[in-house]
Amino acid sequence: MKYRRRGTIEALQWTGKNKAEVKAFASQFALFDHADVDGDGTLDSVLKVRTAEKIVPAQNGDYLVRGEKGDFLLVKKADFEREWEQA
């Protein structure tokens, strides 16, 4: 999906269940681990995003944003939705 603020960006929301979609969108910038996040005894996908500065863990609902130079950053859901609208 595309979103706009002052310009248009590409972004994708991490739902905890869209691993394939995130891999296709962010390729080598999306790193996955597995843990029992919700305590139900099954392993869930845990996303970490390689940004320009460091590797950042994502929470369900966070947005992966592709920067102008092809880099990625992670934006909390509330911050993203306050600043951007769907184009």
The stretches of 5 or more residues where confidence is low (pLDDT under 50) are none
- In N-to-C order, the SSE pattern is EEHEEEEEHE
Largest sheet: 5 strands, antiparallel
Strand order of the largest sheet: 7-6-2-1-8
Treating each run of at least 4 consecutive H or I residues as one helix, how many helices? 2
Radius of gyration: 13 Å
Kindly report how far apart the N and C termini lie.
Answer: 8 Å
Q: What structural category arises from helix and sheet content?
A: alpha+beta
- How much beta, percentage-wise? 35-45%
Say how many strands there are: 8
Overall pLDDT:
90
Which bin fits the share of residues in helices?
10-25%
Shape estimate: globular
Layout of helices and strands:
Layout: E1 2-4, E2 8-13, H1 19-26, E3 30-35, E4 44-50, E5 55-57, E6 63-66, E7 72-75, H2 77-83, E8 85-86
Structure write-up:
The chain is of the alpha+beta class. Helix content is 17%, strand content 40%. It has two helices and eight strands. The strands form two sheets. A five-stranded antiparallel beta sheet has the order 7-6-2-1-8. The chain has a three-stranded antiparallel beta sheet with strand order 3-4-5, with helices on one face. Strand 3 and strand 4 form a beta hairpin. The longest helix is centred in the N-terminal third of the chain and has 8 residues. The N and C termini lie close together (8 Å).
